[in-house]
Amino acid sequence: MMCAIHAARRGRKVLLLDHSKKLGGKILISGGGRCNFTNTGAGPANYVSRNPHFAKSALSRYSPDQFIEMVRNHGIAFHEKKLGQLFCDQSAQQIVDLLKSECDEAGAEFLLECPVKKIGRTDSGYKVETPQGEIHCQSLVVATGGLSIPKLGATGLGYQIARQFGLKIVETVPALDGFTFSESETRTFGKLAGLSIDCQITAKTASFRENILFTHAGLSGPAALQASLHWDRGEEIEINLLPETPDTFEWLMEKKKAGNRAKVTNLLSEILPSRFADCFTAIHLSTNEAELPLPQVSEKALKALCENLHHWKFIPKGTVGYSKAEVTRGGVDTDELSSKTMESKKNPGLYFIGEVVDVTGWLGGYNFQWAWASGWAAGQVV
Ligand SMILES: Cc1cc2nc3c(=O)[nH]c(=O)nc-3n(C[C@H](O)[C@H](O)[C@H](O)COP(=O)(O)OP(=O)(O)OC[C@H]3O[C@@H](n4cnc5c(N)ncnc54)[C@H](O)[C@@H]3O)c2cc1C
Q1: How far does the centroid of ligand 1 lie from the alpha carbon of residue 359, in Å?
Q2: pLDDT under 70 in the chain at which residues?
Q3: Residue 109's pLDDT is what?
Q4: Whole-prediction pTM
Q5: pLDDT, tens digit (0-9, with 9 covering 90-100), for 153-194
Q6: Residue 225 Cα, ligand 1 centroid: separation in angstroms?
Q7: What residue's CA is closest to ligand 1, atom 17?
Q8: Using CA atoms, how far apart are residues 172 and 322, in angstroms rounded to an integer?
Q9: Domain range summary for the chain, segments of one domain joined by +
Q10: In the CATH scheme, what is the code of domain 178-320?
Q11: What is the CA radius of gyration of the chain?
Q12: Which spans in the chain are helix H?
């Protein structure tokens, strides 16, 4: 829709074709129904792509401020929730209405509930075969998104079109979906479902300070979602469960010196949820030591426990999958596209924008900002 607005404003005849009944299905469910429509700090560093430079051009030419101005012009009230994340005060529907009314004003037309059967090349551009007939165009813009949430109409059509026209695809995986535990971790931590802990989580070199949420089968919550974007199968993740306490071992040793006779789990319950403290001490102290007063617990055991609290490492079984993923990482290889216009280098007139491209944003409004910016960039030239 962003591309349609800007192309139509330039006087181009625009038809927006979608197999869904409803416009902007993902916008409607985003941000818990309030749409985290941008992030004031969005920049190239907030995106994962095989080419980290690719997104720079579009992001710098269409900034969060430009989208915010449009939101303001439409009288949509919004607020910053945290970390530059902007949400509608009322409803995500307002963002869909904004885009639709801008499309209408610019003269872009819509054809909904229209599945695509086949794409072909013509002398003057491309043809799209649909049950409603053949559509001919000079420029074809593919904005079919990723594979996440198939029940909302996500399909692999964009990747199929890319392959048909000889474009490489960077392997696609679900992302921003959190982690699943292996069987042994599920047995140990599954009982903590519903518990949330402020932590620092690290996957590869990416590190996030936010909450993790234990589920019956893994980790969710913003920190786990963020980390899942950077994680590859078989890799370890590391979690500092006490980022506010620089040295938990020292903290316990001071209590020990002061003659504190509480059990370790009770002391840890001062700085961690008690259900978690019970579970973690049961794993890392012997049954005997877990029941003893602090002065009788060996320094070695305390040190090992604290090391695990600050550097809890494990290899997740996987991520949750496309049914829950907010995005698809990977997609049309950016080497194949012009970073200025999103046009295929090999196929003049064929464009790829938004999530179908191998540019994936962090959690927090970055993915919509990429959709707006890449759509805007193509809209200037199609
Ligand atoms: C639950 C959830 C919450 C999210 N929350 C946020 C958030 O708050 N902030 C944020 O920045 N990002 C969020 N995202 C990510 C964001 O929604 C996407 O990155 C963004 O919508 C991508 O835009 P797009 O236009 O590329 O693709 P999409 O919005 O996915 O649009 C693709 C369109 O193509 C159509 N289509 C697909 N296949 C076909 C086909 N075969 N024929 C015809 N039409 C087809 C679909 O019906 C759809 O309308 C969220 C995602 C999910 C799943």
Answers
A1: 14
A2: none
A3: 98
A4: 0.96
A5: 999 999 999 999 999 999 999 999 999 999 999 999 999 999
A6: 17
A7: 26
A8: 11
A9: 2-175+329-379, 178-320
A10: 2.40.30.10
A11: 25
A12: 2-9, 25-29, 56-61, 64-73, 93-106, 157-164, 183-189, 221-230, 248-257, 264-268, 274-284, 287-291, 299-310, 366-379
